[in-house]
Amino acid sequence: MKPEPLWIGGREAAPRGGESFPVRNPATGRTAARAALAGGADVERAVEAARKGFLAWSRLGPRDRAARLFEFARVVRQNLRELAEIETLNTGKPIRDSMDEAGVVADCLEYYAGGVQKFFGETIPVTDRGLDFTLREPLGVCGLIVPWNFPMMIASWKFAPALAAGNAVILKPASLTPLSALMLGRLSKDAGLPDGVFNVITGPGETAGRALVEHPEIGKISFTGETATGAGIMSLAAPRIKRISLELGGKSPNIVFADADFGLCVERSVYAVFGNAGQDCCARSRAFVEKRLFGRFVEAVVERARKLRVGEPRSSRTEIGPLISPAQRRRVEDYIRSGIGHGARLLCGGTPPKERGLSRGAYLRPAVLDRVRPEMKVFREEIFGPVLCVMPFKDEEEAVALANASDYGLSASVWTRDIGRALRVARAVKSGVVSVNSSHSVHLEAPFGGYKKSGVGRELGLKALEGYTEVKNVFVAEK
Ligand code: NAD
Questions:
Q1: What's the 146 CA to ligand 1 centre distance in angstroms?
Q2: Residue 148, ligand 1, Cβ within 6 A
Q3: Is it the case that residue 353 has pLDDT exceeding 90?
Q4: Which has the closest alpha carbon to 149: 250, 234, 287?
Q5: Nearest residue to 140 (alpha-carbon basis) of 62, 59, 221, 217
Q6: Stretch 197-206: mean pLDDT, rounded?
Q7: Does the domain formed by 6-248+454-475 have CATH 3.40.605.10?
């Protein structure tokens, strides 16, 4: 099997070390492709190419850059099906989710193509006589390091604003899921982006990723992944005072009051934790339910969870695909065992499905645990799999305390018809995103990011353009 090459300077590039690694299909366990294993020398070449790309790209005005990014979006839409199929092959996510996510890549490019034309500095009335104004300048070459759960979508949240703001990028996908990033590299060329503006290197985080973080010519690292990896990146970046943004883990609460719209809340709560097989940083994995609704809610959620169609990801009927790898499934099963061992009760799922044809994939039926206590690992740690912990609460104060009893603070949902209560809880919960009567955490137009150990900085919205630029203040004295 010929390995997928790197994408450097607008063309395919073989890795200097000549090595490659297997890329698996989580639905079958088989090798779907091989990808080039980049080392330090390849990162060096990518930085060199990106520096050249940056010179050409940053010389273009916002309107010209926007035109290329609109074209990039059009090319992505033209190749939507193929991109989605590659993503499904590589991640095991249901094809309909991959189609939606490929659409988001195009939407995101369009949003920032439009956004950058309305993005400018300020004039400031300083005390000294003269004119004071700010300029927004690109950072140069940005290193974008992304995880395996939403490979192309999360990449687009980074490369679309970075490129719009005038930077060149080097994208490093997770080793488990490099294929869609490589395809996006090729599509960027079809869209007419200058050579070197969009580079992709594939390889392990500890070597290729680390080389990016430590490279002195890289102006910013935008990272999404585990909190522990993020902490490591923060310390690697510290000696160089490198700009970083970190989107990290979560253990998001789903707070349900007895006056909620029951049907809607049950339906959304189920997808909010089991969608993407629970491998979602925003998964509402801790449901807190007002005592008098608790029994009814749990019964309905368990019934709905049992009916979720776990299956072959290429089927348009499938709602839940396999986990990313057998190792990830073992990790999730260990969590479930640990919960049960400490007194939690498994109400459904937590075992591989029995259906024929699914035995080779890393499938796991959605699990619901009750009798959970805040000191348990299943309550405190990010499981990153299809596991929901449910707990009752007696009043608003207790609900907020339970929601905030976490090192993480990424997303939260509140379900109630009482507007005053919705506002009070939205203010009291310590997380970067709160959704009221909704489980949507992400809107391209609004800032997204975490409190506490869920991260530093914000993605999306016009805020993201700020994150990919430096502010320069200019004062011109008046004679
Ligand atoms: P991970 O931290 O293992 O890897 C993420 C990326 O970092 C990969 O590309 C990996 O190769 C690279 N990497 C690993 N070690 C590195 C190092 N020392 N230097 C530089 N790069 C390195 O995370 P994962 O397992 O791919 O993804 C799952 C995690 O991502 C979960 O914790 C999840 O919550 C988090 N996540 C967060 C968000 C968010 O927006 N907050 C979104 C999606 C996923």
A1: 6
A2: yes
A3: yes
A4: 250
A5: 217
A6: 97
A7: yes
Q: Determine whether the shortest distance from the Cβ of 90 to ligand 1 is under 6 A.
A: no
Q: How far apart are CA 22 and CA 5, in angstroms?
A: 13
Ligand 1 atom at minimum distance from 204 CA: 11
Domain 253-443 of CATH type 3.40.309.10 = yes
pLDDT greater than 90 at residue 199: yes
Q: Where are the domains of the chain?
A: 6-248+454-475, 253-443
Please answer whether residues 366 and 274 qualify as being in contact, where contact means their C-beta atoms are separated by less than 8 angstroms: yes
468 in Cβ contact with 219 (< 8 Å) = no
What was the pLDDT predicted at 357? 86
Q: Counting beta carbons within 10 angstroms of the beta carbon of residue 182, is it exposed (0 to 12), middle (13 to 18) or buried (19 or more)? A: buried
Catalytic annotation, residues: 158, 247, 281, 459
Q: Are 463 and 136 in contact (CB under 8 A)?
A: no
- Ligand 1 geometric centre to CA of 61 (Å): 33
Positive or negative, the Cα torsion across 186, 192, 193, 194?
positive
DSSP-derived pairing of the beta strands 218-224 and 141-145: parallel
Using alpha carbons, list the distances in angstroms from residue 362 to 278, 281, 297, 387: 13, 19, 29, 15
Q: Residue 356's pLDDT is what? A: 83
Amino acid at 466: E
pLDDT band at 392 (very low <50, low <70, confident <90, very high): very high
Return d(Cα 222, Cα 232) in angstroms, integer.
13
The Cα 454–Cα 407 span in angstroms is 8
Ligand 1 contact via 206 beta carbon (within 6 Å): yes
Q: Looking at ligand 1, which residue's alpha carbon is closest to its atom 37?
A: 248
- Name which of 149, 184, 179 is nearest 77 in CA terms: 184
- Cβ of 312 below 6 Å from ligand 1: no
Give the atom of ligand 1 at the shortest distance from the alpha carbon of 210.
19
Full-model pTM = 0.97
